[in-house]
Specification:
Elements (H helix, E strand, L loop, with lengths): L19 H7 L6 H16 L5 E2 H4 L3 H8 L5 H14 L3 E8 L2 E8 L2 H11 L5 E5 L14 H8 L5 H13 L2 H13 L5 H14 L21 H8 L1
Antiparallel strand pairs: 1-3, 2-3, 2-4
Length: about 240
């Protein structure tokens, strides 16, 4: 097989954000190439095609996915089935089957907040779902959480278009619970700035979620270590 890849070109490149949990939780467990390729393809779909639900029929038309599966199996369509089934069994993906004009359609969702919300809507009968498998969406663990944009506007203020992409990347990188905790810490410390919240999330990723607990301080407990821009300017003067 000829490898046509000659390296990444010069200049600015587009990147796909992959959640840290993929590397720390999923990747060590995945032992099947078909499952790995399908999982990575869904992470890419979530970012660039903004889709929470993808049908099996549509996946069959994704040339890059099918071509990639053809490198590891004589029958790429069979490999797609295996990859999807393994990802659903691992609860990386969710699965639903809908009926339309007496024809059944299989739908797959990344097991993320957006995917779970879409699956709930399908389960409610909006698209004629006749069977659902892959995750217990009635579990309290899947309760509706505010998204990062709602948290920002509720706790910091109006969101600027320049910051929207950075928030979107953060939402795809960190678990929802971490993001809520970071905003809570910022509010408790009265540091309502995204740079502060981002630093807490980065600390959680490198040192563990308990990192955030160490950031809770009060003026009674410890000297103030952060300053607003106005305070810093006054101090310099």
């Amino acid at each position: 097989m000829t490898n046509d890849f000659t390296g990444f070109p010069d200049g600015e490149l587009k990147f796909t954000a992959v959640p840290n949990l993929f590397f720390t939780k999923l990747l060590p467990q995945i032992d099947n190439l078909a499952e790995l390729k399908v999982t990575l393809h869904f992470l890419w779909l979530r970012q660039y095609e903004k889709k929470n639900a993808v049908s099996r029929e549509e996946l069959l038309t994704h040339e890059t996915l099918i071509t990639g599966l053809a490198t590891i199996a004589a029958d790429p369509f069979e490999a797609l089935t295996e990859g999807l089934e393994r990802a659903v069994a691992r609860k990386t993906l969710l699965h639903a089957r809908s009926a339309e004009n007496d024809a059944a359609h299989d739908w797959y969702f990344l097991n993320s907040e957006g995917g779970r919300i879409t699956l709930e809507k399908m389960k409610a009968g909006e698209l004629g779902v006749v069977d659902v498998s892959g995750a217990d969406i009635a579990s309290p663990a899947y309760a509706r959480r505010p998204n990062i944009f709602e948290l920002y506007e509720a706790n910091i203020g109006l969101l600027s278009p320049i910051l929207a992409d950075e928030l979107k990347d953060a939402e795809m990188t960190y678990p929802p619970g971490w993001i809520e905790e970071a905003f809570k810490i910022a509010v408790e410390n009265n540091v309502r700035k995204w740079s502060y919240i981002r630093a807490i999330l980065e600390g959680m990723a490198t040192e563990g979620k308990t990192y955030g607990k160490h950031q809770r301080t009060t003026e009674k407990d410890t000297p103030k270590r952060w300053y607003t821009d106005e305070e810093r300017e006054l101090f310099i003067r």
